[in-house]
Write a structure and sequence with these properties.
This protein is α+β, with helices and mostly antiparallel strands. It contains twelve helices and 34 strands. α11 packs parallel to α12. The chain is globular. It binds alpha-L-arabinofuranose.
């Protein structure tokens, strides 16, 4: 590959860069330093493994809009995860209709006909005709907490319908209840708040019509009032907090393969995901489930802002996934391209996204952002085009059209190209060739590999040509969530820091995975409805991100460079002045590395040390979430010292240079 073959040129260039950056960096008096990307470590979020619906998105009801369909799973239909109920010898009917829906984007709704409400002799309990929602394997409620219920109803009979709505245990014990009557023959939104009387992990929402008549209902939603930062239509706080705790510098969204979709009709179109939830376009999630788009572009940008991360949206490159319809079985021949006559409209859609994010409230799309509750711009700086597509002539032509149009109208946006799903090979080469030809500022690379590959390729980016595009390592992981996987990733990440002048950004993938609903087995955080399990890989990512610097120093840590199990890096954070050492030992023995801080004028000897170590096979599970977690404590340093790195360990030593 031209890029790799240029390694001599790259090395010369790197030496030059080191020299130049050393002479202009903040740490001007310190030799052997270079500026590195301040946005190096961030997150990649994709709705895979029930990460959004049933996961980070705090909606508690499943199939709230009656849009589940057999195209998503052959056994699914509009009443999936709802049960028809008629307690008290009552009887009636239920159907799913599409005439005059709440919104054309949301075509299905349910109609209940309450023919008889049984108050038979000897019957005690609620009587009526209704439905109950089972949530995502139950609804978690906590005593004293409030839950916001909303639903759209249209009264189809002359007289009002009385509704009794409750949260109940599986045995029918009431945990919360509210009552109201319909008051309109048109679609109307009704809201109520339910306060749970006790803790229960698998509640159901019961909606009972208790007077005779007919009623249409749709978009039945239940949210905990306590979402992350109490945002309406918000995020599950424990999961969101775990992400916020990582201090990510950016978040890539919405994927992943979800971006380009399984077939052209399944591409992720950002405009379908904003506005009131009843107007959003739900669709099949290509990972085999249903995507409400409830966690859409607005919620994503808001979350980025809430945790101080830069948004990095990725738009489809106007082609679908090469594996559309499962064609990976025959070699990924499923890529389809948007017809050329649709390209101008599509390009406008991409430009509109930039206006929606950054435009003034007086612009057409900026006004929509303001209407949604955010008049100030979101300060979008990055935009990805495409996700690891097969690099075909169809792809290249469309990528170029989108790239040229955005570059010409918005030169301020840093555009990110793509280079296939592997670390090398045909698509990788072709992707980089396009990037070099068009001078794409940043190229997205993806690879999922064995831990040994990461150890063996620790020097990958040392060889990259500093004259061409920068790298965004948008998806990477070693296959597995054991400690050894995480430690191999840590070793590789010291290489990312060392090359932080050319590697602009990096994000582990995938991020979240719901227990029993997982399509991709190596993930950063596992969870069920109640518990979240950060993996050792999470802690490595978090330690790198929380202890990120913006200047890299060579020759501070000396190790046996022939011993591939050892890796290390040293950075400084210009805001705090802190020096941060990262030391990795991917072996079964304690190994010593030497630290020499004499190039720094002042250091505070009272430092802080965080160590993640254990048995290579250790992992965290739902029943033991903290088997492998880092421990932090005080550590005394001097200008020179030896550090015995424990077996299978990752250590971060943070040293203050200011009082
Ligand atoms: O991270 C899981 C998947 O891996 C992503 O959707 C895709 O981009 C890659 O193949």
């Amino acid at each position: 590959m031209k890029r790799m073959a240029n390694s001599l040129k790259a090395t010369v260039c790197m030496v030059f860069l080191l020299f130049v950056s050393a002479s202009i960096s903040v740490a001007q008096t310190v030799k052997g330093s270079k500026k590195i990307s301040p946005d190096l470590f961030g997150l990649f979020f994709e709705d895979i493994n029930y990460s959004a619906d049933g996961g980070l998105y705090a909606e508690l009801l499943q199939n709230r809009s009656f849009e589940y369909s057999p195209t998503e799973r052959k056994e699914w239909h509009p009443l999936s995860f709802w049960e028809y109920i008629s307690p008290g010898y009552s009887y009636g009917k239920i159907s799913v209709e599409t005439t005059s829906p709440v919104h054309p984007n949301n075509p299905h709704y349910t109609v209940l006909t309450i023919e008889h409400v049984g108050n038979e002799v000897g019957y005690v309990g609620d009587a009526g005709v209704g439905i109950k929602n089972l949530g995502y394997e139950g609804i978690v409620v906590r005593a004293g907490e409030k839950y916001d219920l909303s639903l759209f109803a249209r009264q189809l009979s002359a007289s009002p319908i009385s509704l009794k709505i409750s949260l109940e245990t599986t045995a029918g014990k009431k945990l919360a209840e509210t009552n109201f009557s319909t008051s309109s023959g048109e679609w109307k939104k009704y809201t109520a708040s339910l306060t749970a009387s006790e803790n229960y992990d698998s509640a159901q929402l019961v909606i009972l019509g208790t007077s005779k008549g007919e009623i249409a209902m749709d978009v039945i939603s239940l949210f905990p009032q306590k979402t992350f930062k109490n945002r309406p239509n918000g995020l599950r706080p424990d999961l969101a907090q775990l992400l916020a705790d990582m201090n990510p510098k950016f978040i890539r969204f919405p994927g992943g393969c979800l971006v380009h979709g399984s077939g052209l009709g399944n591409m992720y179109r950002w405009k379908n995901t904003i506005g009131p939830i009843e107007q959003r376009v739900a669709q099949k999630n290509l990972w085999g489930y249903h995507q409400t788009a409830g966690l859409g572009y607005y919620e994503y940008f808001q979350f980025c802002e809430d945790i101080g991360a830069k948004p990095l949206p990725v738009v489809p490159a106007a082609v679908s996934c090469q594996n559309s319809g499962g064609t990976w079985r025959i070699g990924g021949t499923g890529q389809r391209a948007l017809p050329m006559e649709e390209m101008q409209d599509y390009i406008q859609e991409v430009l509109d996204l930039i206006e929606w994010a950054n435009g003034p409230v007086t612009s057409a799309w900026g006004a929509k952002r303001a209407e949604a509750g955010h008049p100030a711009p979101f300060n979008l700086q990055y935009l990805g085009i495409g996700n690891e597509e097969k690099i075909t002539p169809e792809f290249e032509a469309r990528f170029k059209m989108i790239y040229d149009a955005v570059k010409s109208k918005h030169p301020e946006i840093i555009l990110i190209g793509t280079s296939g799903p592997f670390h090398s090979g045909e698509d990788f080469e072709k992707g980089w060739t396009i990037a070099n030809k068009l001078e794409v500022p940043v190229v997205d690379e993806h690879y999922y590999v064995q831990p040994e590959w990461l150890i063996g390729n620790h020097y990958r980016y040392d060889k990259y040509n500093r004259d061409s595009s920068q790298v965004y390592l948008g998806e990477y992981a070693s296959w597995g969530n054991k400690l050894r996987n995480a430690i191999a990733e840590a070793a590789f990440m010291t290489g990312l820091e060392r090359n932080g002048d050319i590697v602009k950004m990096a994000s582990y993938a995938p991020l979240l995975a719901k227990d029993k609903f997982t399509q991709w087995r190596t993930d950063m955080i596992f969870f069920n409805n109640v518990t979240a399990v950060p993996t050792p890989n999470y802690y490595v990512q978090k330690l790198f991100s929380v202890h990120q610097g913006d200047t890299y120093f060579s020759n501070v840590i000396t190790r046996d460079t022939k011993d591939s199990s050892l890796a290390a890096s040293c950075v400084q954070d210009s805001k705090t002045g802190d020096i941060i050492l990262k030391l990795v030992n991917y072996s079964k023995d304690t190994k010593t590395m030497k630290v020499n801080l004499s190039k720094f004028k002042k250091i505070n000897t009272a430092a802080e040390k965080t160590v993640l170590t254990g048995n290579g096979d250790d992992e965290n599970t739902l029943s033991k979430t903290d088997k492998t977690i880092p421990s932090t404590g005080a550590f005394t340093v001097s200008k020179t010292f030896d550090y015995p790195a424990p077996p299978m360990s990752f250590t971060v030593i943070r040293i203050k240079t200011k009082p």
